[in-house]
Design goal:
This protein has about 375 residues and is α/β, with parallel strands linked by helices. Helices cover about 35% and strands about 20% of the residues. The strands form 5 sheets. The chain has a 7-stranded mixed beta sheet with strand order 8-7-6-9-12-17-18, sandwiched between helices. Helix 2 packs antiparallel against helix 5, helix 3 runs antiparallel to helix 4 and helix 5 crosses helix 6. Bound molecules: 5-S-methyl-1-O-phosphono-5-thio-D-ribulose. 5-S-methyl-1-O-phosphono-5-thio-D-ribulose binds next to helix 2 and strand 11.
């Protein structure tokens, strides 16, 4: 993704030995980068959501594991680093998937070689993510192209949260098809849910789409259903933090309500995701752990003043309780199809195992 003409990934190894990430807590008002030098730096960046989005959480955790091994590459250290990183955010499956891949790559590697091997494996997790997202974009592009055929108006796509390049290493999942369609000259317009409480849509998705020149409009989270009733939404595409082997989709809280509205209005509802998001061990969406974050994210809101300073203000009555659950689960029956790097499939076990036949025997 280009920002002011320069191509960026969301994280990369820097010459000073650090892993450099874009600090998403400052966007869209400030484009800042942060250096991660230690395991704790990586864990904090994930926990505090300087980096966020399931694939990027996985990629950062992979580098976090590598950084942990710089001075001590023992088996004990690997196990301890995995525990620290796994505890950062419980819902995104990509976190566990990336750590499993790291442990697999380090098995049998001599102690002296482990740090280098871990940095290389984390790099290859990032490269794979870029390629997977690019391919998700190609498959999703064809769905948008079909909707555009014979239509004189732009295709209006509604998305929730941020599942663009900022949520991944590059391209994004839900936004990759939109970028590909826009680049292919297909007129698209995106309805961007603001995504309370942390406003990933208003802050990040809008920033990304603006930087790429894609027409878009930020809307209140609750407007989508009304727009669908008026025929102003041709499709919904969201990302996912975890998808069960039965096709239930866990994503940012509010996604389920969009799926219900889409179902009621005959609007196709797609979730876009790479392999690392699929939890083959779960068949029921109800078993997915849902992250509960600080109520302060709900009771307070941060923005920039006319003077250019960041300010946090309270927006909820002081004595009221607040509950901040980060995700919800959309049952597979409400999902038109899943868009993966291997193609588009029904949100069913047959659909998923059809694309990933090698998963039939193990997890
Ligand atoms: O809490 P966040 O910002 O990490 O939540 C992100 C989402 O819910 C995204 O939609 C999801 O991770 C898919 S990212 C390609």
């Amino acid at each position: 993704m280009k920002i002011s003409g320069t191509h960026y990934r969301t994280l990369w190894p820097a010459a000073n030995g650090a892993v450099r990430v874009i600090d998403q807590s400052r966007l869209p008002f400030e484009f800042a980068v942060v250096d991660l030098l230690t395991l704790e730096d990586a864990a904090c960046a994930i926990r505090d959501m300087r980096v966020r989005g399931a694939p990027l959480i996985g990629a950062t955790a992979a580098y976090g594991m590598a950084l942990a091994l710089r001075g001590d590459a023992s088996d004990t250290r690997i196990a301890q680093a995995a525990r620290v990183l796994e505890a950062t955010r419980p819902t995104a499956h990509n976190l566990r998937w990336a750590l499993d891949r790291m442990r697999g790559a380090l098995r049998g590697v001599a102690l002296a070689e482990r740090f280098g091997a871990a940095m290389r494996e984390a790099g290859s997790i990032c490269d794979d993510d870029v390629e997977q997202c690019r391919t998700i974009g190609s498959h999703g592009l064809e769905l948008i192209r079909d909707l555009a055929t014979g239509r004189s108006e732009p295709v209006n796509v509604l998305t929730h949260c941020n599942a663009g390049w900022l949520a991944c290493v590059d391209w994004g999942t839900a936004l990759a098809p939109i970028y590909r369609a826009h680049d292919a000259g297909i007129p698209v317009h995106v309805w961007v849910d603001e995504t309370r409480p942390r406003n990933q849509g208003a802050a990040l998705t809008a920033f990304e789409l603006a930087a790429h020149g894609v027409p878009h409009t930020v809307i209140a989270d609750n407007l989508g259903g009304h727009l669908m009733q008026r025929g102003l939404v041709q499709m919904v595409i969201v990302g996912a933090d975890r998808v069960t082997a039965c096709g239930d989709v866990c994503n940012k809280v509010g996604t389920y309500l969009k799926a219900l509205a889409a179902w009621d209005n005959d609007v196709p509802f797609y979730a876009a995701l790479p392999l690392g998001t699929i939890d083959w061990s779960l068949s029921r969406g109800a078993d997915i752990p849902i992250e509960e974050r600080s109520p302060r994210e709900l009771t307070h809101i941060t923005g920039i003043t006319a003077m250019g300073t960041f300010e946090t203000v309270r927006v909820v009555n002081e004595s009221s309780a607040a509950l901040n659950l980060g995700f919800d689960v959309t049952p597979a029956r409400l999902v038109t199809a899943l868009i993966t790097e291997r193609g588009v499939c029904p949100a069913t076990p047959a659909g998923l195992y059809g694309l990933y036949p090698e998963r039939r025997t193990g997890t």
